[in-house]
Design brief:
Layout lengths: L2 E8 L10 E8 L4 E5 L6 H5 L10 E6 L2 E2 L6 H7 E4 L12 H11 L7 H11 L15 H13 L5 E5 L7 H16 L3 E6 L10 E6 L2 E6 L1 H5 L2 H6 L6 H11 L11 H14 L1
Helix pairs in contact: 3-4, 3-5, 4-5, 5-6
Amino acid sequence: MLVTGKNISFTYDFGGAAFALQDVDITIAQGEFVAILGCNGSGKSTLVKHFNALLQLQQGALKVAQIDVGNTEEIWLLRRLCGMVFQNPDNQFVSSVVEEDIAFGLENYEVPRGEFPARVRSALALVEMDGYEKRAPNSLSGGQKQRVALAGVLALEPEIIIFDEATAMLDPSGRQEVVKIMHKLHKTGKTIIAITHYVEETVAADKIILMHQGRVLACGHPRAILTDLDLMKKAELIPPLPVRLYYDLQQAGVNLSNCPLTNEEFVEAICQFRSKT
């Protein structure tokens, strides 16, 4: 496993009265697309900030890419292997020119300067921002800014890419842009960890880790998690629209052959139902 955690607990209250995480176990395999889903305050961002030691492990055990996150001598390598894209891209920019901003991370990690141009071009191509090298970040749309911030992470060639609520500040179009890039990167073999409270962004994941009040409520395939109304209610989340429509139709006496997760699946289920009747 690429990420293995056992009995992870964490508190921001050093008196220990309130836990942000409590007895969390987690496993993530190489190349998986994992969505960590939960409402605000569920502990999902606190959990992933342990993966590259942005938060110090207080209780439990955690290894990422065979590195013990508690080993302070390995933190620099850990943060290079485990890149993170945050909610607000403006907080990640340090330069007024896109290519210089991406090169800043390369310089920090002592990548040879001769490699800078090729790495910058390659990273921008991966996020479909070719030709934007000379642009100012503040001239870009929200979705474009987030993609440039991601390019800065990709230039370091991490094994794991964490999107920590990376779509939360974007409009629907920008959200779609970033989610599309997540799946594109996953297809290249990257391990993707997407933290979100948008259930629609999790339907195509390999696995969902559902969190609530600092604990893992469930872990499994999106279909098993998102179609369980009791589980979603316990997590204080609303299931995807196709799931809600499926159960509404069921109450009205219309029984579709299976519960759809996407709009496309819902249309197909309706067509199948009509063909039978």
